[in-house]
Amino acid sequence: MDSQHPVPSYHSGFRNHVSSQALPGALPEGQNSPQRCAYGLYAEQLTGSAFTAPRGHNLRSWLYRIRPSVVQSAYQPLDHPRWVTAPTAAALADPNQMRWDPLPLPSEPTDFIDGLTTIGINGDAAGQNGCGVHVYACNRSMQRFFYDADGELLIVPQLGGLVIRTEMGVLEVASGEIAVIPRGVKCQVRLAEGVEAARGYVCENYGAPFELPGLGPIGANGLANPRDFLTPSAAYEDAPGEVELLARFAGRLWVTRLGHSPLDVVAWHGNYAPYKYDLARFNTINTVSFDHPDPSIFTVLTSPSDTPGMANIDFVIFPPRWMVAEDTFRPPYFHRNLMSEFMGLIHGEYDAKAEGFVPGGASLHNCMSPHGPDAETFDKASSADLEPQYQAATLAFMFESRYPFQTVPGARDADFRQRDYVDVWSTLRSHFDAERP
Ligand SMILES: O=C(O)Cc1cc(O)ccc1O
Ligand SMILES: [Fe+2]
Fold it and tell me: What are the Homogentisate 1,2-dioxygenase N-terminal domain coordinates in residue numbering (predicted)?
């Protein structure tokens, strides 16, 4: 794997059992642990579920690497005050609707890990439920390496493409695409060629790994189709030299030192691996008659909780689409939901907000906190001509959770928080006239 110019290649399909080797014959045939592996490699299993998880949820891969992962120094704790993990007493569940401008781009040299800033958390990482919602802004490629024992990382680039080098191969991820790095998989996040600064969102999923939602009456096809998910082919580097491997474990950052690159997996097989997905491939389904369907029709991935139908986290997008609904208030309706909603905007405009929700920004509407279109959007949509209309310039998303998000002090007190957000609804007035049905 050439660190400057990686040429990624991919296997198509969602969570398939993949066999991938960067050298011929590196994967043992018909068994996992031969007495001696080809090329003098070490065999190492990485599990993403308990050994005894039901077959449909059983996740593991076998890695054939130059040195086993145990060849590393003792872990030492490292400070990272802006990265917060649930639970912590400092985080507050707050019913106030909140909104943020984009996280400012750094002026100091900042890599992806330095640039992570937590907005909200819920659940309990040690209990394997809930998530951390972070934004990142960085201007340097990571020289160090990293894995997250607390959760899986769903990375949503907003500005600037990333090259995510992992133990299992390389993912190139542009704005408009997403990447998922499973719990424990070692990686290094670099800026794509020509990119000077990158910004985006991360959902650190402490719970069940993301899976495709059931389609019910939609049928066998639609929404995010399995073959559009791409898992990297094996790629390795045999690179000696002192490096740092960071580990997120139990809400703290740790560092261990190695005398070689940890991206030394020559071959692997299994169903526990990183993947990427281009959101433009989403097959959007919506009304062709009337009314505004609930946004669950836009679910890309879901992390189930132990109550069927109540997600630990749903990842939902609002992609470019036709609006054709007749006699309908077309933007999102006013609502109060059981589920808590964190939203971000990748590009364009969001149809519920005329102003203030900008690409790179974020909003939070917690359990039962009322929200919906701002006053300007309501006025326009109530009298708009209901021609078919193509909403081209838009790509918003939502991390929706059954657990209310608790905002962390760094996000509540941030300069980039819009403290007057609630006023976007203040001019909605009564149109009630008991004499006029
Ligand atoms: O903007 C939101 O709050 C998200 C959202 C969108 C929608 O189309 C319907 C309900 C909903 O919560
Ligand atoms: Fe909502």
Answer: 10-279
